[in-house]
Amino acid sequence: MSKKDLKILLASPRGFCAGVDRAIQIVELALEKYGAPVYVRHEIVHNKYVVDGLRDKGAVFVEELDEIPDDGCPVIFSAHGVAKAVPEDAAKREMFYIDATCPLVSKVHREAERYHKSGDQIILIGHEGHPEVVGTMGQLPDGAVLLVETVDDVGELDVSDPKNLAYCTQTTLSVDDTAAVVAALKVKFPAIKEPHKEDICYATTNRQAAVKAIAARCDAMMVIGAPNSSNSNRLVEVAASHGCPKAILVQRASDIDWGWFEKVGVLGLTAGASAPDVLIDEVIEAARAHFDVTLEEISITKENVSFKIPKVLAA
Prior knowledge:
Blueprint: E1 4-12, H1 18-34, E2 38-41, H2 48-57, E3 59-62, E4 75-77, H3 85-92, E5 97-99, H4 103-117, E6 121-125, H5 131-137, E7 145-148, H6 151-155, E8 165-169, H7 175-188, H8 202-215, E9 220-224, H9 230-241, E10 247-250, E11 266-271, H10 277-290, E12 291-299, H11 311-314
Parallel strand pairs: 1-11, 1-12, 2-3, 2-4, 4-5, 6-7, 6-8, 9-10, 9-11
């Protein structure tokens, strides 16, 4: 029986960003240099395949420092960043720690500190409970940062002084949704200060733009990523809001319900910033087993960003 045709529009850029690539390299280099175990506080990046692969090499993932014995082994902080109390606690215990926080997240931390130092109250646009948000809010004393998620939240904001305000954002938000929240903030607080350079990172922006470029041409969109990955979930939302009839998040090929493909002739395919290329390749190969696949890559820009490895591992 002949297979049904399936055209896959492959969004580009997709998959790993520079911050994720750097964080994974940090764990791998630490394992090479110091041997196992290397402890990692929180998932280094939000992807089960990546985390399981590092665990197989000797990484031990924990949620809090008190789960780590005083054995002198390295401790790595995840790409999402941590509250100031975490390295302080590690220093008190004389732990050897390496910070794998994405430099673009660190930029938001420094920005918030600068505003606070100049007497501004900070409004952070982000998702409550996300590790990046917890880390950013944890750079400053309690009450210094107010969190908003939606335009409705802006309406309920009660600030100390409307003339001394600044906003920052999580790096992995929906570009469109964030623009709406920022617009609402500027209407309510005309004097609010904004970042010199947008906080939403280049990788999040590019991956969303790539999805927008193909969404209307697709019968369905599949995003490879983890359920707890903010940037991956945003890609599903962006596809749905830009003309794609249905969009879904899957972790890998083995999770796909092939019945979902009924009436799908053109599939958009992308991956969140913490999903490796191997998972995209796996999905394409699995699709070939069910369909007669033709591939077309739609590239909106080339990325050439890279971040330096910490000096302690570069030697």
